[in-house]
Amino acid sequence: MKNKNIIIFSSLEWATQRQVVHEFTEFLSKDNKVIFVENTGVRSLKIKDSHRISLAISNFFKEKKLFYKINSNLVIFRPIFIPFLSYSSIIIFLNQIIISYFLKSWVKYNNISDLECFCFLPTPLNFKIMKNLNLKSLYYYCIDDMSYFSSNKKKFLEFENKITSHAKLCICTSKTLYEKIKQKAREAIYVPSGVNFDKIQRSINNIEIKDKIIFDKLKGPIFGFVGSVRNIIDYNFIKFLINSLNNECNIVFVGPIIDNPPDEIVNNKNIYFIGSKKHDYISAFINKFDYCLIPYRKISFTDAIYPTKINEYLALGKPILSTPINEIIDFNKKNQNIIKIIKSYDEPINIKSLQLETNSKEKKELALSISRQNTWENRFEVIKKKIDELDYLDKKKKWEFKFKNQPVLPVYLLIAVLILSTFIYLHNPVNKLQSYLFGKSVINLPSKNFLILSGYGNLDYYNLTYQYRVLDIKSILSNTQPENIIIFGRSLHVNENEIIKSQIEKDFKVNKIYLVNDKGKNTRDNINYINSFLMEKNINDDDIVKKSKARKIRLYCDN
């Protein structure tokens, strides 16, 4: 499989957390010309997606181009499309015309022919775009049960079946997916995720000082998870670990927060959310863990997952604790039960017995041996070999995508789309709605008193980055001059309110700054404590501007 022209329809953006699609794309680009089409969506836009959509539009205007090079063989295409009502026939029709126009223009301009396609996202939109490209070959790379989160599961499955039946080869990352896909596919193979073993080993010391400080202060065993924090996490499993070890363990989540965890998890002082980190740093965090976790709820979606993190954990010889999802059970059967599966929460675990069971020298050597066999290179060679075999068999009978072409985009429609995109970028309706529901802009808010609520703030970062608070506060104080400032701050690792106070005093003159420390067990207790403090100081609640970033919303109350 060399010297081919390949287009990849991805299920995510190139700049997101590194996954199978990134590894496979870079593998192909070593010997082939590859164009990577970023995610065109699997579900309708929701309010929580507003930041991601705004960022994508912002990046487009910043880059000022739809296509950009990663290297001489790899080009990224950031498509413009309407991100609303993704399963509406009209929206699909408009989006496929828009995206097809740019893709066909780029292919024509670069004199590309015999285009082969790997599809990671089997949506109606991608199916219709592929119809316009005169593909030489189509391959479906099935990495998740994406219909589970689709806003129109029936329609998604309809087009997944169409792409499956048209594909020359279907590649499945889990046994559950393979059993489902092989019934309708011409050819299907099971190829689970892998690991860059050498890279993992080389980067175990790539950790920033602020993150190292967090781990240095932790006492007791550290149980860690690397990956997106989503609603597929089994928080009963997390509570089971903490209760079993009498709150003497620490649980650390490293990765972006897609869905907010329950309050009891966020407020637990034994649980830490480090936030999203570059992939080059991930092994350093894993190296800090005593035990690694795969804490997924057992549902149909997770039963179809082969967690990439399995081999990343094993590459550093770390013991793994997991819930009983299908792929973990199957993995254990083939690999001498290397992973400890927690099947019931009725029997607490003991740290001493856990150490004896998982931390032996033999277990570590077995973990490293398994990981060395499961490299990305080995995985993708299986795919390459299968494709070369099919190419050889198809020489006499040419395989092709037989579809009629769709009309290209008229110039006037292109202009209309660009105007619409610009309008969305400059006048984000979701942000306006949020502002209307939750409060006013902070600019020029008159108030005698200013209350600053520190704490976890955005769950996308661990709150050693109190600098975000300081920057917001300085911006506000440049437009208003309160007589008094009250700063409430956590003191789990650092006294944030003291640091915020020192930063404010450098640039602003304030009559009085009060410091209030975290004393409550939860948010409600702390709010009641603040109210008592305000009453004691004769500060009227109606005279206060409140600033909070908890739960990713802003609340402003002026007099």
Top keywords for this entry?
Rossmann fold, 22 helices, 15% strand, six-stranded parallel β-sheet, alpha/beta, disordered C terminus, 559 residues, 3 domains, eight-stranded mixed β-sheet, 18 strands
Provide the fold topology.
Elements: E1 5-9, H1 20-29, E2 33-37, H2 50-63, E3 67-71, E4 74-77, H3 89-109, E5 115-119, H4 124-131, E6 137-142, H5 153-166, E7 169-172, H6 175-181, E8 188-190, H7 197-202, H8 209-217, E9 222-226, H9 235-244, E10 250-254, H10 263-266, E11 271-275, H11 279-288, E12 291-294, H12 300-303, H13 309-314, E13 320-322, H14 326-334, E14 339-341, H15 351-358, H16 361-373, H17 376-393, H18 411-426, H19 429-438, E15 449-453, H20 467-477, E16 484-489, H21 496-507, E17 512-517, H22 523-536, E18 544-547
Parallel strand pairs: 1-2, 1-5, 2-4, 5-6, 6-7, 7-8, 9-10, 9-12, 10-11, 12-13, 13-14, 15-16, 15-18, 16-17
Antiparallel strand pairs: 3-4
Number of strands: 18
Task: Quickly count the helices.
Answer: 22
Please, what is the oligomeric state?
Answer: single chain
CATH class of the largest domain: Alpha Beta
Describe the sheet with the most strands: 8 strands, mixed
Q: What gross morphology would you assign? A: globular
Question: Number of folding domains?
Answer: 3
CATH-scheme architecture of the largest domain: 3-Layer(aba) Sandwich
- In CATH, the topology of the largest domain is named Rossmann fold
Strand proportion? 5-15%
